[in-house]
């Protein structure tokens, strides 16, 4: 991990090390950069500074840098970085330097050099590698000078390197060692030989590949090596491999059978499908299932004529495998039996439903349509379900007939399918079903379908779906208007906002009650003032409670959390009224997600109320670990210790105290975006590549412009009481770089110490100025931290991080302290708050 000095040196030398290569005289600038980096390597600089220079030479070094890098290969503090740089250089000089260093090195340095020679596929190293491999499996007298240490590990590393080098001498050395080695060394040798064999096969050298595979199969006793080798023999045998595969699948040897089954999805040979068809009926049920599951993954899956008869197989597991296979190969001819299976509760029901939804051959939809007239209601229901899941819009007229029918379970199934089949232009049909419903049961069914349809369509202002609903709300009878109002809770548009506001003031108690319930379900934050008025007013208790819950959800909900100041204002307005027990609990539940002293104060105000003391304590326990001011959080948690009527509370307090102590001073509120990458460009090179999030720092000040920079998401926080807090983001496999930002609110202009931990390369900007470009060196939380002085302006400060993410979850931690390292208590980090405009 690079400590403060190299980080600051790289930032201070930014004009030379990071922009020189982009100057107009790019060639001479790069030479100057390389010379300066070589000078660092040859100076008495610290290991961290030399490592930072090596990393830069990894990208920019030439033959000129090889002697200086080679001189560091024996230095334990810098060897890894120097080797990393040499490993990437295409120059033969770099390869010779690594070979020369092999005899002089020892321990981890030698193992690292062996690995680098393999990465480079350095053919000149084959004699040396062969010598070390032979020594590892031979008598002590044959060991090279200075062998020492764990010779088996050295031999395994040499074998791994030889496995990467496409050279006849490398193969010969591995073959000689194969018979003489044991244990982990033998595993490494066999693995290397298998890689050679697979490489030969990929290159079209089938004869040599088969020879190597057969040699391993005949010599080896370990099951997984024999399986891998047998698979290789089949793949290398061309058309002659099919008889081997079929014999193994039906043969008595479990090992060969398992190896053959793994080849079923991808094995390429003329006549494979007829051979599988002949073999399938002769196998026991378990093997029929295994063969069928592999066969259906092939580019030439099993024919329908082979699969369909298996639906009547006496073995349940075979019938299930057949149903799964029909999802890919089935057509209209199997719709009836599959619908009958789908209509029968049991192990095959879910698979049959999936098959009916996924089959793409023949007239599947038309066959399902005819089943809507089947005398069996359960079959009708399954047909209606499948038509909806398939998106077969031609079925809408018949489904509408069923939706108006008296057949209760079929009617509901038809409505559910109409939900997904009707587009915006046909929502009027569902509105008509609500308005014209005969009885409360049918009206409730239609309302549910209409609500789901609007949730799916998410109509915007001016949508074609809105006029039929608005017309029904304006012209219908009171019972249908009330029913349609309940649909409005899922819609966020100005038109519906107006309808709900009008409903809240309607003289009809029935309409007003429906409007209150709908508004209490809304995601429209523009209605928050209306809800707040309801919650704090003198109306019916039920309505005040519904409105309070809605206010809390809109203010503190994960999907629609308000900026901190607005959220606190909402909570204070609610708290200022005379609250019912339900309102108090709703308020405390919202406060529990808070992270400010104001929210903590409101939660603590309810500790004395015995009716909600447990809820208030839970809110304090939720808020305290998120506070930036650790002393304030600790004091609040200590005050909770006076509560004696909860046996579990002391344990919860102790856990929260540990969390606060481990997170004191850490920035825990971030918005992140990932991954950013460039096609054909290595992840390690992207830390210097500019992406939209660093294009214009002023864009962070407004939500709309910030959204154009990237798709931002809240970043998860992980806490380990044994180690400092750190944040996680991204997912394995997402190569590239990631960005994260937060706002630091400082009560005054002041100096601060910023501490960063990171396991890969990182850049940090404060208020648009680059303050760190560092290189990680190990997993958190063990790594050392970069720490340096910064100046925070009074008010909002924008902190942005860019982190390299090479295919694994990316982690970092950021802590703010006073310049002397003591806790900084008057700075609050909140990524979700908005800066003042102007």
Taking the sheet with the most strands, its summary is: 7 strands, antiparallel
Relative helix content: 55-70%
Instruction: Give the oligomeric state.
Output: single chain
- The end-to-end distance, rounded to whole angstroms, is 41 Å
Strand element count: 12
Rg is 35 Å
Q: How many DSSP H or I helices?
A: 41
Shape: flat
Structural class by helix and strand composition: alpha+beta
Short précis:
The chain is an alpha+beta fold. It is 55% helix and 9% strand.
Describe this protein with a few key phrases.
alpha+beta
Describe this structure in words.
This protein is α+β, with helices and mostly antiparallel strands and 838 residues long. Helices cover 55% and strands 9% of the residues. It contains 41 helices and twelve strands. Strands 1, 2, 5, 7, 8, 10 and 12 form a seven-stranded antiparallel beta sheet that branches. Strand 7 and strand 8 form a beta hairpin. The longest helix has 20 residues. The protein is flat, with a radius of gyration of 35 Å. The N terminus is likely disordered.
């Amino acid at each position: 991990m690079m400590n403060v000095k190299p980080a600051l040196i790289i930032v201070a030398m930014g004009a030379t090390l990071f922009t020189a290569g982009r100057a107009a005289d790019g060639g001479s600038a790069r030479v100057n950069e390389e010379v300066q980096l070589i000078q660092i390597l040859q100076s008495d600089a610290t290991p961290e500074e030399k490592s930072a220079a090596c990393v830069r030479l990894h990208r920019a070094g030439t033959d000129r840098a090889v002697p200086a890098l080679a001189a560091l290969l024996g230095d334990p503090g810098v060897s890894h970085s120097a080797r990393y740089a040499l490993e990437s250089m295409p120059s033969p000089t770099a390869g010779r330097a690594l070979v020369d260093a092999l005899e002089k090195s020892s321990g981890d340095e030698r193992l690292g050099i062996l690995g680098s020679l393999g990465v480079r596929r350095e053919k000149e190293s084959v004699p040396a590698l062969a010598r070390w491999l032979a020594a590892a499996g031979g008598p002590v007298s044959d060991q090279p000078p200075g062998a020492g240490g764990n010779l088996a590990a050295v031999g395994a590393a040499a074998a791994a390197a030889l496995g990467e080098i496409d050279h006849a001498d490398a193969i010969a050395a591995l073959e000689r060692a194969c018979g003489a080695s044991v244990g982990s060394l033998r595993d490494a040798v066999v693995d290397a030989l298998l890689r050679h064999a697979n490489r030969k096969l990929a290159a079209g050298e089938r004869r040599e590949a088969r020879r190597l595979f057969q040699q391993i199969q005949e010599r080896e006793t370990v099951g997984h090596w024999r399986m891998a080798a047998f698979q290789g023999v089949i793949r290398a045998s061309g058309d002659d491999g099919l008889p081997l595969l079929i014999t193994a699948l039906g043969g008595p040897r479990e090992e060969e059978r398992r190896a053959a089954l793994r080849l079923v999805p991808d094995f390429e040979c003329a006549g494979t499908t007829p051979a599988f068809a002949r073999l399938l009926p002769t196998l026991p049920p378990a093997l029929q299932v295994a063969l069928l599951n592999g066969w259906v993954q092939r580019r030439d899956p099993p024919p329908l004529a082979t699969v369909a008869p298996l639906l009547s197989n006496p073995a349940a597991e075979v019938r299930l495998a057949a149903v799964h296979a029909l999802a890919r190969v089935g057509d209209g001819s199997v719709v009836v039996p599959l619908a009958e299976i789908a209509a029968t509760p049991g192990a095959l029901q879910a698979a049959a439903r999936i098959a009916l939804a996924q089959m793409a051959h023949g007239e599947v939809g038309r066959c399902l349509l005819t089943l809507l007239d089947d005398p069996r209601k359960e079959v009708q229901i399954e047909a209606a379900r499948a038509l909806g899941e398939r998106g077969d819009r031609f079925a809408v007229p018949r489904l509408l007939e069923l939706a108006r029918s008296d057949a209760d379970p079929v009617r509901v199934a038809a409505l559910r399918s109409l939900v997904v089949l009707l587009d915006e232009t046909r929502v009027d049909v569902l509105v008509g079903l609500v308005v014209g419903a005969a009885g409360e049961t049918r009206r409730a069914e239609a309302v549910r379908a209409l609500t789901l349809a609007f949730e799916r369509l998410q109509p915007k202002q001016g949508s074609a779906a809105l006029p039929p609903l608005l017309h029904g709300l304006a012209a219908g009878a009171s019972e249908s208007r009330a029913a349609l109002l309940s649909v409005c809770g899922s819609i966020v548009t100005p038109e519906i906002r107006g309808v709900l506001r009008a409903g809240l003031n309607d003289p009809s108690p029935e309409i007003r009650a429906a409007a209150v319930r709908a508004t209490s379900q809304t995601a429209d934050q523009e209605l928050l003032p209306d809800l707040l008025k309801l919650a704090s007013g003198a109306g019916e208790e039920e309505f005040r409670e519904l409105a309070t819950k809605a206010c809390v959800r809109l203010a503190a909900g994960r999907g629609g959390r308000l900026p901190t100041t607005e959220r606190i204002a909402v909570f204070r307005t609610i708290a200022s009224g005379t609250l019912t027990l339900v309102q108090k609990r709703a308020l405390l539940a919202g406060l529990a997600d808070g992270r400010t002293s104001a929210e903590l104060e409101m939660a603590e105000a309810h500790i004395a109320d015995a009716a909600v003391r447990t809820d208030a304590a839970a809110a304090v326990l939720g808020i305290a670990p998120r506070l930036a001011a650790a002393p304030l959080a600790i004091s609040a948690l200590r005050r909770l210790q006076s509560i004696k009527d909860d046996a579990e509370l002391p344990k919860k307090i102790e856990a929260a105290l540990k969390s606060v102590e481990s997170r004191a001073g850490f920035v825990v509120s971030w918005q992140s975006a990932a991954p950013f990458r460039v096609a054909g460009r290595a992840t390690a090179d992207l830390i210097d590549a500019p992406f939209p999030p660093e294009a214009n720092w002023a864009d962070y000040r407004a939500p709309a412009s910030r959204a154009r920079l990237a798709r931002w998401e809240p970043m998860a926080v992980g806490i380990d009481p044994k180690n400092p807090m750190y944040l996680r983001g991204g997912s394995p496999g997402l190569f590239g770089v990631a960005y994260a930002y937060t706002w630091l609110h400082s009560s005054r202009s002041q100096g601060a110490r910023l501490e960063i931990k990171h396991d890969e390369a990182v850049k940090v900007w404060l208020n648009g100025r680059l303050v760190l470009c560092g290189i990680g060196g190990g997993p958190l939380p063990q790594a050392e931290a970069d720490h340096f002085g910064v100046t925070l302006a009074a008010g909002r400060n924008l902190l942005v991080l860019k982190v390299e993410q090479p295919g694994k979850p990316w982690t970092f931690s950021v802590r703010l302290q006073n310049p002397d390292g003591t806790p900084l208590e008057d700075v609050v980090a909140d990524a979700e708050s908005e800066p003042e405009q102007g």
